[in-house]
Structure prediction request, 82 residues.
Amino acid sequence: MELGELKNFVREKAKEGKVVFMTCEGPMIADLDEFIQQGAQGILYDLNRDKATTLALASEDNLRWINDYAVAVVVEKLCEKR
Prediction:
């Protein structure tokens, strides 16, 4: 699937209440309401955004890892409040 098709696919699934995330086996689709019932660590692991992975992939030439780490902090807090 080319990039444009993949973007459309992800957006369409989101409109259907699904979340698409990439794994080593390829894209996976989950019902969003069910997906968010997991604890923070399960969500972050599935999205490959847990703190350990984020820090392991951190590099000086791509500072996106800072926002990825922030995502982990925010998801943990939101799940704690839930």
In short: The helical segments are 3-15, 32-35, 40-46, 51-56, 64-81. The chain has five helices and two strands. The first helix runs from residue 3 to 15. The mean pLDDT is 95.
